[in-house]
């Protein structure tokens, strides 16, 4: 998939360019799930995409699903120069999953956690191990299991590549997710808290392995955001 858009443009200069996503936001707030993990609200029935040709596209979920998230995240996952959208979808029966959308709708998704009222909190997306493919990281059940999971987006699908236990990034009722991914010149690091909320952790993904290191005390969620700035 990499470079196909450029090749097509060179070979067929008169061909119309594919639509690209420039912004995304959740719409249609709903209470049909009623989990409340993000406080009041935080559950949505539709995703609206703004496209570079000036049009918008509204994607509506069936009644069995909601978007359970703070905001959609844009990232170029396949290296073609256009952004995909990363979201959290929750099934009313099977809990949350992470999904990737393009202009035409859902492209890929992880399995649902498997039980109602079980959620995941995204960390971010980056080429974590410098292999040329983008990984997406999240905390699976940040209030219960507290497992960092990493999935690689490759050939239009999500492939599970690694897990690390004892990490979290969200407390029940927060309408935000602190931390994320930083790169201080030596590769990407995922910033979360250690289980128990006593330390901030930086986790690297190298040679198919996740390795975490406590880097500073945790006093509040602002410490996770502050750790995104390089020392």
Can you characterise this structure?
The chain is mainly beta. The chain is built from 2 helices and 17 strands. The strands form 3 sheets. Strands 1, 2, 3, 4, 5, 6, 7 and 8 form an 8-stranded antiparallel β-sheet that branches. The protein starts with a helix and ends in a 5-residue tail after the last helix. Residues 1-16 have low confidence and may be disordered.
List keywords for this structure.
eight-stranded antiparallel beta sheet; five-stranded antiparallel beta sheet; 231 residues; mainly beta
Quickly describe the structure:
This protein is mostly beta strands and 231 residues long.
Content-based structural category: mainly beta
Query: What's the rounded overall pLDDT mean?
Result: 93
Round the Cα radius of gyration to an integer and report it.
Answer: 18 Å
Number-wise, the strands total: 17
- Low-confidence spans: 1-16
Overall geometry: globular
Helix content: under 10%
Number of continuous helical runs: 2
Give the percentage of residues in beta strands. over 45%
Largest sheet: 8 strands, antiparallel
Report the end-to-end length measured between terminal Cα atoms.
37 Å
H/E series:
HEEEEEEEEEEEEEEEEEH
SSE blueprint:
Layout lengths: L3 H8 L9 E9 L13 E9 L4 E5 L4 E4 L4 E3 L8 E8 L3 E8 L2 E5 L10 E7 L8 E6 L6 E8 L2 E9 L1 E2 L11 E4 L4 E7 L4 E8 L2 E9 L3 H6 L5
Antiparallel strand pairs: 1-2, 2-3, 2-4, 4-6, 5-6, 6-7, 7-8, 9-10, 10-11, 11-12, 13-15, 14-15, 15-16, 16-17
């Amino acid at each position: 998939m990499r470079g196909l858009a450029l090749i097509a443009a060179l070979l067929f200069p008169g061909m119309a360019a594919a639509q690209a996503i420039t912004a995304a936001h959740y719409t249609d707030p709903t209470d049909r799930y009623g989990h409340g993990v993000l406080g009041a609200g935080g559950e949505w029935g539709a995703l609206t995409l703004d496209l570079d040709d000036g049009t918008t596209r509204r994607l509506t979920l069936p009644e069995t699903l909601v978007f359970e998230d703070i905001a959609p995240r844009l990232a170029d996952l396949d290296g073609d120069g256009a952004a995909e959208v990363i979201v959290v979808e929750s099934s009313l029966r099977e809990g949350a999953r992470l999904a990737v959308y393009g202009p035409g709708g859902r492209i890929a998704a992880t399995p649902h956690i498997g039980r109602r009222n079980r959620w995941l909190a995204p960390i971010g997306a980056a080429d974590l191990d410098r292999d040329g493919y983008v990984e997406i990281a999240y905390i699976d059940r940040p209030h219960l299991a507290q497992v960092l999971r990493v999935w690689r987006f490759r050939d239009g699908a999500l492939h599970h590549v690694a897990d690390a236990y004892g990490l979290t990034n969200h407390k029940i009722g927060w309408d935000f997710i602190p931390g994320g991914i930083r790169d201080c010149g030596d590769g990407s690091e995922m910033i979360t808290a250690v289980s128990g909320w006593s330390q901030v952790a930086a986790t690297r993904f190298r040679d198919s392995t996740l390795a975490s290191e406590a880097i500073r005390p945790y006093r509040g969620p602002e410490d996770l955001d502050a750790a995104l700035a390089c020392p």
